[in-house]
Write a structure and sequence with these properties.
Layout: H1 2-30, H2 34-73, H3 75-89
Length: about 90
Amino acid sequence: MIHKKIAKTIKNTNELGARKQLIEELFYDFNRNRFQVYWMNFTRGIFFGLGTLIGGTVVVAFLIWILSQIAHWFPSIGTYLNQIIITVSH
């Protein structure tokens, strides 16, 4: 029983090593030039940051709009929500 466990562990380790090697070979075949890899990662980071900025702006604007709607529906908490809206929007 212990032999089967050891054999399974060796098989899994060999498979994992082979997969890593294959991924590395594919990466180096696709990207032979280091400059291309660095440039691709740089542009990817720029677009990721830009997308995060735009997405965050849309979410904050939507939350401000929701708070203003709630302030109109419930006048009792409207003054408190208006203070929050003014603080966030400025």
